[in-house]
Amino acid sequence: MSRPLRVLLAKTGLDGHDRGVKVVASVLRDAGMHVVYLGLHRTSAAIARAAAQEGVDVIGLSSLGGTHLVHAREVLEQLRAEGLEDVPVVLGGTVPVEDIPALEAMGVRAVFRPGSSRDEIVATLRLAAEAAQRD
Fold it and tell me: I want to staple 63 with a disulfide (CB 3.0 to 4.6 A). Which of 58, 93, 96, 105 is the partner?
């Protein structure tokens, strides 16, 4: 990819804790990526609309409130409805290990739990974007 990777970060629902996603945004920017952070309380429609407008390569959802299964499903369904199903979606936050298979089955490409390294996040986003371009 000749241009910087474009990443959209967002928090859905009523989860008001955004320190982690802001740290991830900084990590991705330091890695040379163009980051668009939508902020708190975003709907799936707002995320899909921003993804289309910004032409992003990857969408990152942040969840600390325990609603990751519901909100990830809503975002993925909205992306499909908007014809953006090829944009990889990753999720980070306090996600129980037992929820990861369900998230992957619905289409989430990667899940970053507490303790995920900066290098792991950067490398996974790059691989997800490259894989989406090949598909």
Answer: 93
